[in-house]
Amino acid sequence: MPSFVDRVVLHLAAGAGGHGCVSVHREKFKPLGGPDGGNGGRGGDIVLVVDPNTTTLLDYHRSPHRKARNGAPGEGDNRSGADGADIVLPVPDGTLVSTRDGEELVDLVGAGTRFVVAKGGNGGLGNAALASKRRRAPGFALLGEPGDTLDVVLELKSVADVGLVGFPSAGKSSLIAAISSARPKIADYPFTTLTPNLGVVEAGDVRYTVADVPGLIEGASEGRGLGHEFLRHVERCKALVHVVDGATMEPGRDPLSDIDVIEAELEKHGGLDDRPRMVALNKIDVPDARELVDLVRADIEARGWRVFPVSAATHEGLRELTFAMGELVAAARAAAPPPEATRLVLRPTAVDDSGFTVTNEGERFRVRGVKPERWIRQTDFTNDEAVGFLADRLAKLGVEDALIKAGAQAGDEVVIGGEDAVIFDWEPSIHAGSELLGPRGTDPRLQ
Ligand SMILES: Nc1nc2c(ncn2[C@@H]2O[C@H](COP(=O)(O)OP(=O)(O)OP(=O)(O)O)[C@@H](O)[C@H]2O)c(=O)[nH]1
Ligand SMILES: [Mg+2]
């Protein structure tokens, strides 16, 4: 059975920032100019954009690894490195983005809606930008930061006003083809439809969208047939229409029990009780089916649902059906607030990104904070002067003092960051040492 692709896991890597450059200006007869190392470029972002021409997640199923370009390193003569190009991934309307743990990040609804799902790293400052009165000729530059790397789950939940539900081969796709300009695949074997088809219907002055759902069978919610996960596509629908096959020859099936089976699956899926329903008794061009209409109509109407005998084949009854669906949609629109805007769930960031915390973990002290952790990533630990600069920054932020307050002593282990943290043997004097080192620079060309 072909796989149904409305859920994919994407492996994303935004671009890394380019490193800053260490360079010293040279000119004939002026051997010692100032520092002129340029900044590294930004790494490219990965952006999801709702594109009406994209209807499936198939492309991402085939190639789930996406990587944006890195920023270029800075160069001498104050030339900044080029930014890495963003990559833009088109997704269908109604794509839900979440983490692998199931935490919802964003619900992308409406053409053109954008979401930066992976941010590129900032470029590192070159030594020109790091120069100050006190540090006239820095012999180091900052490293570019890595870009976000993460896995996200994309799930497609169609955005349609009316959802058609029913057994395989009941004629749901045929109905969509008959009432809209959509041209879904139609065939006389079950499970023809593997991804929902979406059609736009105009009935009087109401314009609405209709989607079908792959055929349901008893036990779908336990994974039989194509499984009930398809029902997620009708979660957003304002109304449901049962499409019932009036001409099926299968033993044990009749319109009333078919409806009961589908209702039981909807019930198990949950969350759809409040959606108004109607019934389209299809295939009345077949004499047996036409006879059934009068036998079952009263029972269905007793549930409060309107019944429409139709034929997707001859188009009989379709005008009444589409106008009635339009009425339901219009009523739902009038009752509900305006179309749902994109719901953004922002990833939790540190409460205060200017601060930091120091915790005594027994064996070591741990420093957490947006700034200290970023500074660590920017530091070239092979360069003493860069390490001194880091120590200065940490001291200025108050990390040094906080460590002393927390009881840290020379030689204790200090960790800055979370999982892939950097571990130091703490030397309170590193601060003072860097002061000495700092202003002068170690670039041998400057001696
Ligand atoms: N005689 C007659 N046949 C119909 C009518 N509507 C659909 N059919 C036939 O029924 C079969 C199934 O139609 P589909 O539209 O593919 O059914 P479906 O409900 O989308 O089926 P799945 O996608 O498999 O769930 C096809 O052979 C259609 O030609 C109708 O009104 N009259
Ligand atoms: Mg179909």
From TrEMBL:
<feature type="region of interest" description="Disordered">
    <location>
        <begin position="61"/>
        <end position="85"/>
    </location>
</feature>
<dbReference type="InterPro" id="IPR031167">
    <property type="entry name" value="G_OBG"/>
</dbReference>
<feature type="binding site">
    <location>
        <position position="173"/>
    </location>
    <ligand>
        <name>Mg(2+)</name>
    </ligand>
</feature>
<dbReference type="GO" id="GO:0005737">
    <property type="term" value="C:cytoplasm"/>
</dbReference>
<keyword id="KW-0460">Magnesium</keyword>
<comment type="similarity">
    <text>Belongs to the TRAFAC class OBG-HflX-like GTPase superfamily. OBG GTPase family.</text>
</comment>
<dbReference type="Pfam" id="PF01018">
    <property type="entry name" value="GTP1_OBG"/>
</dbReference>
<dbReference type="InterPro" id="IPR045086">
    <property type="entry name" value="OBG_GTPase"/>
</dbReference>
<feature type="binding site">
    <location>
        <begin position="166"/>
        <end position="173"/>
    </location>
    <ligand>
        <name>GTP</name>
    </ligand>
</feature>
<dbReference type="Pfam" id="PF09269">
    <property type="entry name" value="DUF1967"/>
</dbReference>
<dbReference type="InterPro" id="IPR027417">
    <property type="entry name" value="P-loop_NTPase"/>
</dbReference>
<dbReference type="InterPro" id="IPR036346">
    <property type="entry name" value="GTP-bd_prot_GTP1/OBG_C_sf"/>
</dbReference>
<dbReference type="InterPro" id="IPR014100">
    <property type="entry name" value="GTP-bd_Obg/CgtA"/>
</dbReference>
<comment type="function">
    <text>An essential GTPase which binds GTP, GDP and possibly (p)ppGpp with moderate affinity, with high nucleotide exchange rates and a fairly low GTP hydrolysis rate. Plays a role in control of the cell cycle, stress response, ribosome biogenesis and in those bacteria that undergo differentiation, in morphogenesis control.</text>
</comment>
<keyword id="KW-0547">Nucleotide-binding</keyword>
<feature type="domain" description="OCT">
    <location>
        <begin position="348"/>
        <end position="428"/>
    </location>
</feature>
<dbReference type="InterPro" id="IPR006073">
    <property type="entry name" value="GTP-bd"/>
</dbReference>
<dbReference type="GO" id="GO:0042254">
    <property type="term" value="P:ribosome biogenesis"/>
</dbReference>
<keyword id="KW-0378">Hydrolase</keyword>
<protein>
    <recommendedName>
        <fullName>GTPase Obg</fullName>
        <ecNumber>3.6.5.-</ecNumber>
    </recommendedName>
</protein>
<dbReference type="InterPro" id="IPR006074">
    <property type="entry name" value="GTP1-OBG_CS"/>
</dbReference>
<feature type="domain" description="OBG-type G">
    <location>
        <begin position="160"/>
        <end position="330"/>
    </location>
</feature>
<dbReference type="InterPro" id="IPR006169">
    <property type="entry name" value="GTP1_OBG_dom"/>
</dbReference>
<feature type="binding site">
    <location>
        <begin position="282"/>
        <end position="285"/>
    </location>
    <ligand>
        <name>GTP</name>
    </ligand>
</feature>
<dbReference type="Pfam" id="PF01926">
    <property type="entry name" value="MMR_HSR1"/>
</dbReference>
<feature type="binding site">
    <location>
        <position position="193"/>
    </location>
    <ligand>
        <name>Mg(2+)</name>
    </ligand>
</feature>
<keyword id="KW-0963">Cytoplasm</keyword>
<feature type="binding site">
    <location>
        <begin position="191"/>
        <end position="195"/>
    </location>
    <ligand>
        <name>GTP</name>
    </ligand>
</feature>
<dbReference type="InterPro" id="IPR015349">
    <property type="entry name" value="OCT_dom"/>
</dbReference>
<feature type="domain" description="Obg">
    <location>
        <begin position="2"/>
        <end position="159"/>
    </location>
</feature>
<comment type="subunit">
    <text>Monomer.</text>
</comment>
<feature type="binding site">
    <location>
        <begin position="311"/>
        <end position="313"/>
    </location>
    <ligand>
        <name>GTP</name>
    </ligand>
</feature>
<dbReference type="GO" id="GO:0005525">
    <property type="term" value="F:GTP binding"/>
</dbReference>
<dbReference type="GO" id="GO:0003924">
    <property type="term" value="F:GTPase activity"/>
</dbReference>
<dbReference type="InterPro" id="IPR036726">
    <property type="entry name" value="GTP1_OBG_dom_sf"/>
</dbReference>
<feature type="binding site">
    <location>
        <begin position="212"/>
        <end position="215"/>
    </location>
    <ligand>
        <name>GTP</name>
    </ligand>
</feature>
<dbReference type="GO" id="GO:0000287">
    <property type="term" value="F:magnesium ion binding"/>
</dbReference>
<keyword id="KW-0479">Metal-binding</keyword>
<keyword id="KW-0342">GTP-binding</keyword>
